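Problem 12. The chain below contains 132 residues. Write out its predicted structure in token notation.
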Amino acid sequence: MHKIKRKVQQKQESRILPFTPVRTYFLLFLMLYLLLVICAGSLLTIRSMKHSAQAAQQSVAAQISQRIDESLKLLNSLAALPEFYDPSVKWEEKVEKLDSINTQFGYMFICYVDEDIQVYTLGGGTGQSGCS
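Solution.
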């Protein structure tokens, strides 16, 4: 009886053993396939992100350049106005006009500076403080 059990057990092992290399290769190729899919997905994602970042950068650069050009045109136009050079016009009127331009165009601070480098602001203060 003991021999019969041993023969049955050997038959079962002989059936299982031929599948062991197949399982090993299957798992090996499965891992290789998963690694390949993950790498390909990562590369495609990186490529897509790089293209969208470049497009965003170009768009923002154009907007910033346009905004700077418009600001320079405005400041040159303001500098060409004769009322800012006329000594008969009070500095308060000049500062009010500049303040309205600040709020209209969204600038933080444009101030009036006279030929003696006196800085005039809407608050009435004068001095030689910095003006942006």
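Discussion. Strands lie at 112-113, 119-120, 126-127. Students who got a different answer should revisit the alignment rule from Section 12.3.
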